[in-house]
Specification:
The chain is α+β, with helices and mostly antiparallel strands. Among the domains are: 201-344, Elongation Factor Tu (Ef-tu), domain 3; 461-557, tRNA uridine 5-carboxymethylaminomethyl modification enzyme MnmG/GidA (Arc Repressor Mutant, subunit A); 570-621, DNA polymerase, domain 1. It is built from 21 helices and 21 strands. β7 (126-132) and β8 (135-141) form a beta hairpin. α6 (250-257) packs antiparallel against α8.
């Protein structure tokens, strides 16, 4: 009986953002799942900034929620500031972002996982995979335990051979004061996996009591109805707090330059690939030498904590240089550090070695998710974890794999980019990466994905009923706006007051809402019938209806473009075809097609180095 104690359907290694979503998804779908973590007190740890969401990342979190994942709910429950970014731009650019209480974020994840049926947790370190006939069959741990499973999901974050740098000081670990993980990289390399090193970093944490807030600019959060989860029962429960803005200055830059000789980034100590879009402060002052100031955000770590995160001041300089630089900044002249910033190097694996399900091509039933695939960010990790957890369950039960297209979700864009293009720096999601971003808005993630989550079994019947009711309300409101007329003599004076032209004749309310100066809410003040129609409707219904009307033409064109590209996805390529036979393909195309093995023409078209002419050759080969 004890010998069979550690036998599972799915084992998830690592309890960061990818691991939490993977374990919850697999267990929720019905697989007996084990989540292995080095420290049960660090489940869902926010290793860097105490925030979730942001540009494009916020859309990923809403997609996770729409599919039945948990990041959105955990974030809402632990939020201490919420903001909808880019409200001055078009709706496709709106991105939710939330500061969270770091301690309560962990507590919320622990509560979520502890109450998930079929899910078990074990504190230990995985040192080896059990593999037979190119199929994973479990793991071995530092405690000497062999654990059996039908599938394994690796979500090791920055822990694989992790090495931290603070000036010339080097510390072995996956996170400050936490051990690194050894053995897995070496085993996977011996099996033929391609691996490399990446670098990321984090700023100093400082004491609130040493900050002069009178010298800083306060940044308040939004107080409206927006949040991450589509569930109406989920809301912000904690006291809302402000962030604070300050700037570096020439004296700051001069102080930091004096330490560049001791910077691991510039003295050759760090040789791995760093993030282009989240550079350290020393990289900023070198790359943008002509810039006299860089904006910094001081972000609270929690309602009961004096710890503040200095966003924009990531550094691996010696701690003395970091502290001296901080004390040249307005409002931080007498600042006290809890700990300095540091850089960390870690192993990752070329993600082109994965299928779109995130199963490895080399070893069956082995899945990778998160920073092990060369990505950066909690949200990117969580999205991959959700997909990997779903597919681990699907695969071992003989069910169809779960894959999202590029016109269906940002998560689909993320995974397709990783699998087809690989990475040459830590991958971070941006709205510009999605060619169909007008379809992938933060407001309509449930419309795109909740039905799919329900089909899988991740979305509960109760949640599906809430979604269906919302869609019915949107349909009702859209129908009202499309059928109700407004007379010119009743509305022209008001229209002129809004800075828009009057009507020559009566028109439908819907036509007025297409004007940029007019919203459903302000028009309701002039049209009593509209005010009555929306009186019982939620703000979410009203906003999504308005966005779909205002951007209807753009949305239609985007859907048509997506449909054309989708046709290429339906033209499948042979699994074992030898592309070196096709001399009409470019040399680079032959090499990459043989190495990456795209499953269809659409995937092939997104591989760097495969030209439109090469795609034409493939279409001829397939008889198209």
């Amino acid at each position: 009986m004890i010998e069979n104690e550690f036998t599972y359907d799915v084992i998830v290694v690592g309890a960061g953002h990818a691991g939490c979503e993977a374990a919850h998804a697999a267990a929720r779908l019905g697989s007996k799942t084990l989540l292995i973590t080095m420290d049960m007190n660090k489940i869902g740890q926010m290793s860097c900034n105490p925030a979730v969401g942001g540009i494009a990342k916020g859309q990923i979190v809403r997609e996770i929620d729409a599919l039945g994942g948990k990041m959105g709910e955990v974030t809402d429950k632990t939020a201490i500031q919420f903001r909808m970014l880019n409200r001055s731009k078009g709706a496709a650019m709106w991105s939710p972002r939330s500061q969270s209480d770091r301690k309560r974020f962990i507590e919320a994840w622990v509560e979520t996982l502890s109450n998930t049926p079929n899910l078990f947790i074990w504190q230990d370190t995985v040192t080896e995979l059990i593999i037979k006939d190119k199929q994973v069959q479990g793991v071995k741990t530092a405690l000497g335990i062999s654990m059996k499973s039908k599938a394994v999901v690796l979500t090791n974050g920055t822990f694989l051979n992790g090495l931290m740098h603070i000036g010339h000081t080097q510390l072995i670990g996956g996170r400050i004061a936490e051990n690194a993980s050894f053995g897995l990289t070496e085993q996977l390399k011996s099996l033929g996996f391609r691996t490399d090193r990446m670098k990321t970093g984090t700023p100093a944490r400082i004491d609130k009591r040493s900050i002069d807030f009178n010298e800083l600019t306060e940044q308040l959060g939004d107080s409206d109805w927006h949040h991450f989860s589509y569930l109406p029962s989920v809301h912000r429960e904690l006291k809302q707090m402000s962030c604070w803005i300050t700037y570096t200055n020439p004296l700051t830059h001069d102080t930091l330059r004096q330490g560049l000789a001791d910077s691991p980034l510039f003295n050759g100590q760090i040789k791995s690939i760093g993030p282009r879009y989240c550079p350290s402060i020393e990289t900023k002052i070198v790359t943008f030498a002509d810039k006299e100031a860089h904006q910094l955000f001081l972000e609270p770590e929690g309602v009961d904590s004096n710890e503040y995160y200095v966003n924009g001041f990531s550094s691996s300089l010696p701690w003395q240089v970091q502290l001296s630089g901080l004390r040249t900044i307005r409002g931080l002249e007498h600042v006290v550090m809890y700990r300095p910033g540091y850089a960390i190097e870690y192993d990752f694996f070329d993600p082109t070695q994965l299928h779109h399900s995130l199963e490895t091509k080399e070893i069956k039933n082995l899945f990778f998710a998160g920073q092990i695939n060369g990505t950066t960010g909690y949200e990117e990790a969580a999205g991959q974890g959700l997909v990997a957890g779903i597919n681990a369950h699907q695969t071992i039960h003989g069910l169809p794999e779960f894959v999202m297209n590029r016109d269906e979700s940002y998560i689909g864009v993320l995974i397709d980019d990783l699998v087809c293009k690989g990475v040459d720096e830590p991958y971070r999601m941006f709205t510009s990466r999605a060619e169909h971003r007008i379809l992938l808005r933060q407001d309509n993630a449930d419309e795109r994905l909740t039905a799919r989550g329900y089909e899988l079994g991740l979305v509960s019947p109760e949640r599906k009923e809430i979604y269906d009711a919302k869609q019915q309300m949107i349909s009702t409101l859209t129908g009202f706006l499309s059928s109700t007329m407004v007379k010119a003599e009743d509305i022209n004076t008001w229209l002129e007051g809004q800075g828009t032209g009057g009507l020559q004749h009566s028109c439908k309310i819907r036509d007025l809402i297409t004007r940029p100066q007019i919203s459903i809410h302000n028009l309701a003040e002039a049209v009593p019938a509209l005010k009555e129609a929306i009186s019982t409707m939620s703000e979410e219904v009203i906003e999504e209806t308005e966005i779909s009307i205002k951007y209807e033409g753009y949305i239609l064109r985007e859907k048509q473009a997506a449909d054309k590209l989708q046709r290429l996805e339906q033209i499948h390529l042979p699994e074992d075809y030898d592309y070196s036979q096709l001399q009409s393909l470019s040399t680079e195309a032959r090499q990459k097609l043989n190495r990456l093995r795209p499953t269809n023409i659409g995937e092939a078209s997104r591989i760097p180095g495969v030209s439109p002419n090469d795609i034409s050759v493939l279409l001829v080969m397939m008889g198209r």
